[in-house]
Amino acid sequence: MWRDAMLVAGKDLRIEGRSRVALSQVAPFGIVALVLFAFALGPDRQTMARGAPGLFWVAVLFCTVLAIQRSVSVESSDGARDGLRLSGIDPAGLYLGKAVAVAAQLVVLEALLTVGVVLLYGARIEVPWMIAVSCVLGTIGLAATGTLYGALSSGLRVRETLLPFLLLPIAAPVLLAGTRIWQSAMAGGVPAQGMQWLRLLVVFDAVYLAIGVVLFGPIQETA
Amino acid sequence: MAPAALPPSAVSLRDAVALSGRFPLLAGVDLEVAVGETVLVEGPNGAGKTSLLRVCAGLVPLASGHLSVLGLDPSRNRVGVRRRVGLLSHAAHLYDDLTVRENVRFAVRAAGGDVARIDPALERWGLVGRLAKTSAGKLSAGQRRRVALAVLTARWPELWLLDEPHAGLDASARLLLDQAVRDAAASGVTVLIASHEAGPVEDLAGRAVTVTGGRVTGTRDLVPVASPVADLGDVAPTDGPVAHVA
Amino acid sequence: MTRDLTATPVDGSAATHPPAGAATNTRVSAPPTPSTSARRTERIIGLLALVGTAATVWLGLWVTPPDKVQGDLVRLVYIHPGVAWVALYLAFGLAAVASLLYLWPRTRSLFWDRLAAAAVEVGVVFNICTLVSGSIWGKPTWGVWWAWDARLTSTAVLLVLFLGYLALRRVPAEPEVRARRSAFVALFAAVDIPIIHFSVNWWNTLHQGATVLNANLSPTIHGSMAWTLLLGFVALTLVFVWMLLVRYRIGALEDWLAANELDLALAERQAEGVAAGGAPVGSGPTDDFPTDRVGVA
After folding, report:
1. What is the domain count for chain C?
2. With contacts defined as CB-CB under 8 Å, which chain A residues touch C294?
3. Residues ≥6 apart with Cβ < 8 Å to C36
4. A158 touches C at CB < 8 Å
5. Residue-range definition of the domain harbouring residue B107
6. This prediction's pTM
């Protein structure tokens, strides 16, 4: 399973390296989202700094949807999805590989957005490690659920509109947890509250990774 | 029904019905293919030849009926069947952003094949030099077919399912393909070729079955040319698989 | 021939699979009419639901006294927790269990899929009632039509998940494919619900003022109010069950209708072969098979 996962992750990342979609399209979209939020909330930096955690995570969610769509559409070139099924590759490995690739792209995007938020909104981060950990855990959760739902909707012509509608409510806990952790981190912390949310993220990640590993095979045969 | 064939059957279908939405792709197929046979599946467009191959590859589940591929049930033992079966379909399953070599490498490794066979396979099909480093998105249809064939010959599975393999290939590639099929047959591989054009492809097979309207509606023996295997096309037709004239 | 739903003859029913040789023999099975006892049960439940609801309304609006603190507003307690219980636990729980049973190979049957779909659809109705009744209750109490109260928020998220499930079901596909897809979605949502519930609760309690808001929605209940409350629960549950039965029956009829079209299609397809290899009758796609076509299992 792990070998197949690394194989698929490597393939997806190599494709990303060649086509640079995440870098040239998704990242700018994230930045545009941050700018639009600034327009929406007005020039008062106080307001924006206070809203920074939530806005960051909403931007991340939007980027996740795009990244997942891209991850799924890579497989529709020339019937590659059938090719993957035909090769008899371990479905759990395929799932993990695609999730890892998406997660890697998301982490880079989040780093970029963090810088953006600090610069554009004047957010001040007192406890950087919490930020980093929350991003990692949140990313894992988003990649895990996203890859699952991407696979479920991969055969659908209405995937573009349906995927966000299906995925975002499920990802709501990540948004809630991420925002709260960022707020703690920016406030310099009562880490106890932050820890509670971190634990929630860990549970969320574990549950959905487990589901994905077990159910990706049957899902693949369905869609 | 055929007497218990001495070599076990590579493909066994009985009353197989396969659906796509409300449309029956296969409407009750009976077919037995023994190990090592090369069988030509012929019939007009829309008859169900492609669907038949896809069912044998385990891509399309049966709605009813019985199917066994290489002794395994594709719906239960998916990975086992797919690792042993190679399907050459209309699409080449290539990633446009990766080079030819990277595509072949990925496909072979994904199927658990031997990495050492990749280079000889690329050479065999003329995918060397600059061509090997070209992105798959820039290839012509014939070149894509060659890449898919390279994957197939590198993997060398026990059952080959070739869907209109000559389509899009130039003359030299067709010769290479014919040779590859003969080599496969010689090494005991079972080959099913679907084609709607008669002609040179008949030289490869020992038997031809006709598929129309989603069922097997006829069978006839062929004399393969320059085929070294003592082939089962010599078996008397009455003992052969069920011939349906509905 | 534009129906999008089909049923496959997989469930052991040999009725739609013609034997070899009977190429043009169409065997159309009878529509699934419920047995007389089933119909009677449905009527009785419907009647009981009607009576129960009427009784609740009468008791709730006239007989029981108004609350000291909330006045007449408290009468919503006879409805709001009832619909909430149905929407959040009964409907959704049923859908989740049914989806699980569908996915489990040994109990796989389209019955569970239809049941789950019916439960979700009726659940959406009850969910909306929960939100509306909660909102009506909230306006005089909190002064706003909507407050991010933990329970209301969770209910709203659940509604979105329900709607996603229904949206997915509207995508045309073979019934088996659609059933599996929906079952997976229901399962994933079911797993997320407890997590959402906890996160929303924490999110809310860390906010100032939430606990005050929560307290106001739960008045102390005693005496005739308690009995009416119980009656309300029972009546609403009966309404749910009745709607579920009707919706299920409609779903079964829809599937039967589509299945008949399959018989005709099978017969036509085989007739193509009989027509001595001539040009196909033209009732299906060509063999040029796009590999990521919707509907290919």
Report:
1. 1
2. 155-157
3. none
4. yes
5. 9-239
6. 0.78
